[in-house]
Amino acid sequence: MTIGRGETSIIxxxxxxxxxxxxTIEQELRLLEGVIQIVVDLxxxxxxxxxxxxxxxxxxxxxxITELGYEA
Length: 72
Fold this sequence. Notes:
Number of domains: 1
Number of helices: 2
Strand content: 25-35%
Largest sheet: 4 strands, antiparallel
Helix content: 25-40%
Radius of gyration: 11 Å
Structural class: alpha+beta
Distance between the termini: 19 Å
Number of strands: 4
């Protein structure tokens, strides 16, 4: 789905167990150039990410989640 200058995707994330996990993922992904907004939902085990595909790819975002120790 494309919204304005960004694209929004839902990414399933396994391995999160607490609010610290949510905060870590949100903080680290915000550091990626091109990530506009991220909201992690622990109960649904997913993140809604709005990003600029001209600056960062969905694969790069998923790779960063994996580097943090979670499955995306």
